[in-house]
Write a structure and sequence with these properties.
This protein is α/β, with parallel strands linked by helices. It contains seven helices and seven strands, in the order βαβαβαβαβαβααβ. Bound molecules: nicotinamide-adenine-dinucleotide.
Length: 273
């Protein structure tokens, strides 16, 4: 391995798919992968305009990207997306399983529809995409000019894969399940030189959690949970995703990288306990 990680373009020529890549963390990751030399598919569900903005940003930066629509919870749409990606770029080297949603409700009032919808997108959506990507990695094998691994999958989870979250049982259960999904397929695929890891963001400034930071009062409240005393930005996740997708992290598989400014460090215990 060269020290090209220090000079950028560590993903030169690799083909990456970022689900939910038109906004927030996914857009941050797509831009970072593009800047690192990857060809990027920006998946979006509805907002073509947002997806094209991300694609244009990557191109303006000298990169290569396209936008492809698909609902990650619908197998036929995901299959069509992968087919369109292979038409354009030939194959896939990196899957960023990022698309996700919340539909919050107290446990006592949560409907089965709310439960199923969040599990379908956050967990089943990752299953559908990861399975298609892994099948392609196995079919194609290692491309030594691109990477020492046959393929990399990064599952965007949440600190709520480990922190219980009252009023969000569907979301927390999806992310907890995702952690064991990630580890199990990492164990199953490692011998084929496929790496699977998770990123668990803390509070990142995106629209999914707008109510937690949009007023000064809400932001001050949120900061009490973050020892590093700032809200994260999509670029914080983007930089880590580049590293986790690159050969610089070759020997890492089945791990969750928490990127949370210390949110999982039990901040209440700094003075108490
Ligand atoms: P976001 O709402 O900007 O991004 C979610 C993206 O997923 C959107 O682009 C949305 O259109 C897309 N999406 C939703 N359902 C989809 C579907 N069925 N098919 C395809 N795309 C779909 O919010 P974000 O914060 O950027 O969230 C990205 C990921 O990060 C999610 O998995 C979320 O759970 C996770 N996360 C976010 C935070 C945070 O603080 N923002 C913290 C922990 C984890």
């Amino acid at each position: 391995m060269t020290n090209s990680f220090l000079t950028g373009q560590v993903l030169q020529g690799q083909r990456a798919l970022v689900t939910g890549g038109s906004s927030g963390i996914g857009a941050g990751i797509a831009r970072a992968l593009g800047a690192a030399g990857a060809k990027v598919v920006v998946n979006y569900r509805r907002s073509q305009e947002e997806a094209h903005r991300v694609v244009n940003d990557i191109k303006t930066d000298g990169g290569d990207a396209i936008a492809i629509q698909a609902d990650v919870s619908k197998q036929d749409e995901v299959e069509a997306m992968f087919a369109a990606m292979y038409d354009r770029y030939g194959s896939i080297d990196i899957l960023i399983n990022n698309a996700g949603m919340q539909w919050d409700e107290s446990f006592l009032d949560m409907t089965l529809e709310q439960w199923h919808k969040v599990l379908d997108v956050n967990l089943t959506g990752q299953f559908i995409c990861a399975q298609l990507a892994a099948r392609e990695f196995v079919r194609r094998g290692i491309s030594p000019d691109l990477s020492v691994s046959a393929g990399k999958i990064i599952c965007i989870s949440s600190v709520h894969e480990t922190i219980p979250w009252a009023g969000h049982v569907n979301y927390a259960a999806s992310k907890g399940g995702l952690m064991m999904f990630m580890k199990t397929i990492a164990q199953e695929l490692a011998h084929m030189k496929i790496r699977v890891n998770g990123i668990a963001p803390g509070a990142i400034r995106t629209r999914i959690n707008r109510s937690a930071w949009e007023t000064p009062e809400a932001e001050a409240d949120l900061l009490t949970l973050i020892p590093y005393e700032r809200i994260g930005e999509p670029a914080d996740i983007g930089r880590a995703a580049v590293w986790l997708a690159s050969d610089a992290s070759e020997y890492i598989t089945g791990e969750t990288l928490f990127i949370d400014g210390g949110m999982t460090l039990y901040p209440g215990f700094r003075e108490g306990g």
